[in-house]
Design brief:
Elements: H1 2-7, E1 10-15, H2 28-43, E2 46-49, H3 58-70, E3 73-77, H4 83-94, E4 100-104, E5 118-121, H5 127-145, H6 152-155, H7 170-179, H8 181-200, H9 204-207, E6 210-211, E7 219-226, H10 233-243, E8 247-254, E9 259-266, E10 270-271, H11 272-285, E11 289-296
């Protein structure tokens, strides 16, 4: 009888960071899921469902699209501003599907939009705080189910994505949404991210400096990056060469297990602020952190 009741529960798609990242302790987000999110979802009458695999392949994309379109409820943890989380949230909002936004108290609020509410929880997860967070999230799920919470699509008054009247391949769906809805979500994110970058990149005067040497001169910048997955270093470097303005050479050296030193060569007029902003944005997309920038004289 218990299994029969469980099978009848509707699914709540859980969008959240999966791997260990940032300055969070090992296993932090697994504990957030097990101690806070999953119990709250179950208390609200749903079955918690998430895609645990961390790599993007056809099978994972199929699962994500199915969950985004078919799950009657979703919950999204914005903590640590994970790019994959924002991507999946953008897809969910594109279809104007119900979603509850939550995040911890360590993360600056991303959506500064009137009408979009976010449930905050304490990252330290003391017992009383966990109980309070569960209750608040459960109430938010029930309110969203009842239609009392606005979606982003309604707030900013955009049309809901609709592929029901036309045959569209999976790749076309991804391209359409990436070029449209996700770019708008990232624009909202970057409003505060740009301010943070300007405060952290080695001083405003140095960051805004423009270098204009002779045409054949080579400008070199060293960057220390931290990457926990060596398999993505090469794709990351290839992306830098394609997307960073003026970059034409990249030399990398593994200093320790997850620390790499990059030497980036430019042979054209560059803005250090623009270059650093582009590198940090690309690194964030790959879940790589930039520890240090330096101009090689």
């Amino acid at each position: 009888m218990l299994e029969s009741n469980s099978e009848k529960k509707e699914k709540c798609f859980v969008i959240m960071p999966i791997s260990d990242q940032g300055d969070y302790p090992v296993g932090h987000f697994t504990k957030v899921y097990e101690q806070i999110i999953k119990p709250a979802v179950e208390e609200a009458g749903y079955e918690a469902y998430r895609v645990d695999e961390n790599s993007i392949c056809d099978a994972i994309i199929d699962k994500i699209f199915s969950a985004i379109q078919d799950c009657p409820m979703a919950i999204c943890d914005l903590s640590n501003r994970n790019p994959n989380v924002l991507y999946e949230l953008g897809l969910r909002q594109a279809y104007d599907k119900p979603v509850v936004l939550i995040q911890d108290d360590k993360t600056d609020k991303i959506f500064d939009v009137s009408g979009i509410s976010t449930v905050f929880y304490k990252s330290e997860r003391l017992y009383e705080e966990v109980i309070e967070a569960r209750e608040n999230i459960k109430k938010a799920i029930l309110s969203t189910k009842a239609g009392k919470v606005n979606t982003l699509a309604k707030v900013i008054k955009v049309k809901t994505a609709d592929f029901s009247q036309v045959e569209v391949s999976q790749d076309d769906k991804i391209n359409v949404i990436l070029e449209g809805i996700y770019s708008e979500i990232r624009e909202l994110k970057n409003k505060k991210e740009t301010k943070r970058l300007s405060q952290t990149i080695e001083g405003a005067a140095y960051s805004a400096r423009v270098i204009d040497d002779e045409p054949d001169a080579t400008i070199q910048i060293s960057v220390i990056v931290k990457c926990n997955n060596s398999a993505i270093i090469e794709p990351f470097l290839d992306t830098l060469l394609v997307k960073v303005f003026g970059l034409n050479t990249v030399v990398h050296d593994q200093i320790s297990g997850n620390i790499w030193k990059l030497c980036l060569g430019f042979n054209s007029r560059i803005s250090l602020f623009r270059v650093k902003e582009e590198i940090i944005q690309i690194a964030t997309d790959f879940e790589i952190s930039c520890e240090q920038f330096a101009l090689i004289e």
